[in-house]
Amino acid sequence: MSRVGKRPVAIPSGVTANVEGQTVKMKGPKGQLQFVVHDDVEVKFESGEVKVAPKFKTNRAQAMYGTARAQVANLVEGVTKGFEKKLEITGVGYRAALQGKNLQIALGYSHDVIFPIPEGIAITTPKPTEILIAGIDKQKVGQVAAEIRSFRPPEPYKGKGVKYAGEYIFRKEGKKK
Known about the structure:
Elements: H1 3-6, E1 9-10, E2 16-20, E3 23-28, E4 31-36, E5 41-46, E6 49-54, H2 59-80, E7 83-90, E8 95-99, E9 102-106, E10 113-116, E11 121-124, E12 130-135, H3 138-150, E13 161-164
Antiparallel strand pairs: 1-6, 2-3, 3-4, 5-6, 7-12, 7-13, 8-9, 9-10, 11-12
């Protein structure tokens, strides 16, 4: 049994929750989100809490109900606080700037990388070497951050590239003569 899945998700004031079949909908001050729960999981909204339980005693149901509870908790956090990822750019001449609805990143290639900002995501560049990605959907924020990082992941010799804030880059020693 999942320890995470056993705990109900409390719905704070200012957030309205709605459970219709396998669809959980949340509406809060930052916006609204919905999530379709797996068929092996049962979802109920009772007395200001969303409760999740497995329908069957199968391994799949056991695995999915903890995941479903975490997803519902992420919906609640998303519509109340939102999510944020911070990327740092390291390297001579590497920089980022907003250009309308696009993010323009110079990463040492012969051309600048133009990344169109998806709907529901806000990207800011407080410094030319910092990118802040914010939104209400945790999966979408993480996916956008991973896509931007994938343009030039940090390399182990000099540490140049795009990395998450606080990410440790394992450094290697160069060739010896």
